[in-house]
Write a structure and sequence with these properties.
With 359 residues, the chain is mainly beta. It has five helices and 17 strands. It has two domains: 110 residues, Methylthiotransferase, N-terminal domain (Rossmann fold, 3-Layer(aba) Sandwich), CATH 3.40.50.12160; 225 residues, TonB-dependent receptor, beta-barrel domain (Maltoporin, Chain A, Beta Barrel). The strands form two sheets. A twelve-stranded antiparallel β-sheet has the order 6-7-8-9-10-11-12-13-14-15-16-17, with no helix packed on it. The protein has a five-stranded parallel β-sheet with strand order 1-2-3-4-5, with helices on both faces. β15 and β16 form a beta hairpin. It is globular and about 80 Å long.
Length: 359
């Protein structure tokens, strides 16, 4: 964390949006060495996590000014004001006012009754700060000193506005055996796209993505899922779109459409092109707040060097264990996967376990 102003956000996308409003106000006011904790009051667990985070932040930044705001602070300001780690508690109305950060009040609790408000604060923010991560690793096996590998994993996310985000990801690996006749192996997966979830209409979620995959085998890889005993190189372009919509409280639907153009090269055959078209229809039944039952029907058509059509259904039961993390158990009645980044090995039939998360 920096020594200026950091914001820790819990809860919904509206909180995320309002955190950016506060970030702008704090920056313009010249606030220094402060942490703003924007809390959520939807569940007791969310409040517990906020209190836990405040204690940790105080240990990490003992001299920083900690300001607690958000729904939990609005509902129960005394609870947070009673924490020795907290310097000030600010209400939901006050947190969106520039004056709150320009002329900080000496009072420990600055919370008004939002039910008495007759004006709505203007949410003026032009965009969100982006996030980027980079990971670089060099590998060398002691048992094979002539074999070395570089691995890179990079990602970037930039929220253009409260409704739209830009996403990018790069995974790269390069392996080499230090021998005169060795052919280096490399793997590249690059993805970029846009995610949309309107703040004013958060029943809708949409993701459009382009992915490029290149997998060049080395001299030791003579067996792959696609061609047994044949050295294989593959490159592919994938375009996909996912749209999810909650029809009402207990039912949501997901539609997926994807296209892949794969190019295969081997030492014993001419270059071959394979085209894949995938369509999937899914219904999620929200049995309770934490439990879902899903039914899905999918179709995969292949053209080019491979000509086939496959279709079938899938059932899944999943449960939310933590905020934004779900674990599912299901059965795939088809023999193909809906992730076209993987080779079409047609061995996906049967039970499966899946963990999903939201950003």
């Amino acid at each position: 964390m920096s020594e200026k102003v950091d914001i820790v956000t819990f809860g919904c996308r509206l909180n995320t949006y309002e955190s950016e409003v506060m970030r702008t106000h704090a920056r313009e006011a010249g606030l220094d060495d402060a942490i703003i904790v924007n809390t959520c009051a939807v569940t007791k667990e969310a409040e517990r996590q906020a209190r836990q985070a405040i204690r940790k932040l105080r240990r990490e930044r003992p001299t920083a000014r900690i300001i607690v705001t958000g729904c939990a602070a609005q509902v129960n300001p005394g609870q947070f004001a009673g924490m020795p780690e907290v310097d000030q508690v600010v209400g939901n109305a006050e947190k969106l006012q520039a004056a709150t950060f320009q002329t900080p009040s000496a009072e420990r609790i600055v919370v008004t009754d939002i039910m008495q408000l007759r004006e709505v604060a203007e949410h003026l923010v032009s965009g969100f700060e982006g996030r980027a991560r980079a990971f670089v690793e060099f590998r060398r096996d002691q048992d094979s000193p002539r074999l070395w590998q570089w691995v890179l994993r990079d990602s970037v996310q930039y929220e253009i506005n409260p409704d739209l985000s830009f996403l990018g990801k790069l995974d790269y690996g390069f392996s080499r055996l230090l021998a005169p006749d060795d052919i280096p192996a490399s793997f590249v997966e690059f993805s970029t796209g846009f995610a949309c979830r309107p703040v004013a209409h958060d029943k809708l979620n949409a993701l459009a993505r382009y992915t490029y995959v290149r997998d060049l085998a080395n001299d030791l890889q003579f067996s792959t899922e696609t061609f047994q005993g044949v050295e294989t190189d593959e490159s592919a372009h994938i375009i996909s779109a996912d749209v999810a919509y909650d029809l009402y409280k207990y039912l949501g639907t997901v539609e997926k459409l994807a296209y892949k153009k794969g190019i295969f090269r081997t030492a014993f055959a001419d270059e071959a092109e394979v085209y894949n078209f995938l369509i999937a229809h899914r219904f999620n039944f929200h049995v309770t707040r934490k439990w879902d039952v899903a039914l899905e029907y999918r179709v995969l058509w292949q053209g080019g060097a491979a000509d086939s059509i496959r279709h079938g259904s899938l059932v899944e039961i999943d449960r939310e264990f933590y905020d934004y993390v779900r674990l599912g158990l299901g059965y795939n009645f088809t023999d193909f996967d809906d992730d076209l980044r993987k080779p079409s090995s047609f061995n996906s039939h049967g039970p499966f376990v899946r963990m999903t998360g939201k950003f």
